[in-house]
Amino acid sequence: MPSEFTGKHVTVAGLGVSGVPAAKVLHGLGAHVTVVNDGADERARAQAAELESLGVTVRLGDGDTLPEGTELIVTAPGWKPTKPLFTAAGQAGVPVWGDVELAWRLRGLDGRKAAPWLAVTGTNGKTTTVQMLASILKAAGLRTAAVGNIGVSLLDAVTGEEEYDVLAVELSSYQLHWAPSLRAHSAAVLNLAPDHLDWHGSMEAYAADKGRIYEGNRVACVYNVADKATEDLVRAADVEEGCRAIGFTLGTPGPSQLGVVEGLLVDRAFVEDRQKNAQELAEVSDVDPPAPHNIANALAAAGLARAFGVSAAAVRDGLRAFTPDAHRIAHVADVDGVAYVDDSKATNTHATEASLAAYESIVWIAGGLAKGATFDELVAGAAKRLRGAVLIGADRALIREALARHAPEVPVVDLDRTDTGAMLQAVQEARRLARPGDTVLLAPACASMDMFTNYNQRGDAFAQAVRELGA
Predict the structure, then answer these.
(1) What is the pLDDT of residues 270-298, one digit of tens each?
(2) Is the peptide bond before 253 cis (omega within 30 degrees of 0)?
């Protein structure tokens, strides 16, 4: 039992998917645990009852007051650094960790070998890239799991009975903010675009937290050649001696890069004499779907796997075995020569930009909660690809106005309703606008909670509406 936790008074900030496991682990390690939580709804009360039955103290309805005697705070990643609880902790000299930091420090518990981490962050594409990476690692015969922000607890991975050779770890900017001592084997930042600025305070702070993933890397810092901000983060990172900068590009790769040549994914980074040689890894057609942004995800995953010593054959086999999650640029059906594609996961403009770039002629279904986003740049870049647009949701007017400014010739259907049945009407209107060879693309560029429980329900509604077209 690690002596650093035995008898220590630890406050866990927030219940939920990270707080409950953290409280249980710390209690099991002999800490005196107090959980504080802002809310006191039915779910919180049930979680509190479970923890209290174990001997954990729970304080509901007050997440701002620092419990007396606190020596360490372990926080849920979404709690803002500006909360009074953390201000009080700073004044008292109490350190604040996230659940990722706790998991990092608990590696090698009970004398087991600590599995190295291959870590991924970025504004978009994290989950897909981590899943691709795990598939590649499994194809290489390694014991691994996709964990972290993907929804699988890192704490469970490092403290559970199963042992791993390596972990594929998705990390959000929130998690990285609260993980000061994380040092990955290798890491990738896929892209950077404005997101969660209300939490971080500025784009500079958001980028800095993303860049923490490179700190102390031992083997490779993988960056996006097309996104200079990611390379800048590599240059600013304090890494171990000998750690390399490895770029990925959709073009022909230079030395120390992975890229695409004549329909092939190729490696000029982890080969002998990379000035002259390249290694074929897979065919573009091995990536599902072979949209440009998804090929970039595959190259980033391949770069991390190759940094870990995985063979080219395992990269190919892992990509072939990978099946993307639902609602991520998923082909639903072809109806009357028109393809219907569900990318409900495209909840911000950066993700939607990548989605729109994958098709030549599009009837675009968009709208929802904009979360402060603007759409001029997105619409201006996609205007030539748009056959038409169907707008739904609370903030659809913002997209309609951007279309009027930058794509005035594109026909727009503005559905003045926010009920869930609007999706069926949206698909019917899109069918009316589409021509054979077009793609009807649900890529909302907005959050879903004005009309749906989450983006999954929104995507399911789209798929059901498409099925009704073909019935």
Answers:
(1) 999 999 999 999 999 999 989 999 999 99
(2) no
Look at residue 324 in the predicted model and tell me its pLDDT.
87
- Angle among Cα 387, 389, 391 to the nearest 5 degrees reads 175
Cα–Cα distance list, 416 to 61, 223, 240, 389, 458 (Å) = 38, 42, 56, 14, 17
The answer to whether 366 and 446 are in contact (CB under 8 A) is: yes
Instruction: Count each helix (H run) and each strand (E run) in the chain, helices first.
Output: 17, 20
**Closest CA relative to residue 287, chosen from 322, 260, 311:** 322
Other residues' Cβ atoms within 10 Å of the Cβ of residue 243 = 21
What are the tokens at 423? 């999706």
| b/e burial code for range 382-409 (CB count within 10 A of at least 16 → b) | bbebbbbbbbbbbbbebbbebbeebbee
| SS3 label, residue 146 | strand
- Going by pLDDT thresholds of 50, 70 and 90, the confidence category of residue 2 is very low
Decide the pairing of beta strands 220-224 and 330-335: unpaired
Beta strands at 96-98 and 72-75: parallel, antiparallel or unpaired:
parallel
- Binned at pLDDT 50, 70 and 90, residue 3 comes out as low
Find, among 173, 73, 58, 51, the residue nearest to 124 by Cα.
173
Cα-only R_g, the chain = 23
| 3-class SS of residue 20 | helix
- Identify the CA nearest to 175 among candidates 139, 145, 200: 200
**How far does Cα 287 stand from its chain's mean position?**
19
Q: Please enumerate in sequence order all residues whose Cβ is within 8 A of that of 157, keeping only pairs 6 or more positions apart, or say none.
A: 103, 145, 147, 164, 167
Task: Take residue 164 and report the two structure tokens written for it.
Answer: 């791993």
Q: Taking the CB of residue 242, how many other CB atoms lie within 10 A of it?
A: 7
**Mean pLDDT within 108-136:** 92
The CB density around residue 333, as the number of other CB atoms within 10 Å, is: 15
Q: Quick one: which of 15, 95, 101 has its CA closest to 60? A: 15
Q: Quick check: pTM over 0.70?
A: yes
- For residue 210, which amino acid is it? K
As beta bridge partners, residue 140 has none
Predicted local confidence at residue 78, as pLDDT:
85
Structure token digits, residue 141: 């015969």
Q: What angle do CA 382, 296, 352 make, to 5 degrees?
A: 30
Both tokens assigned to 337: 């020569």
Site of tokens 């650094």: 81
| Residues in contact with 296: Cβ distance below 8 Å, sequence separation at least 6, in sequence order | 125, 190, 224, 226, 248, 250
Give the closest residue to 391 by CA, choosing from 377, 403, 407: 403
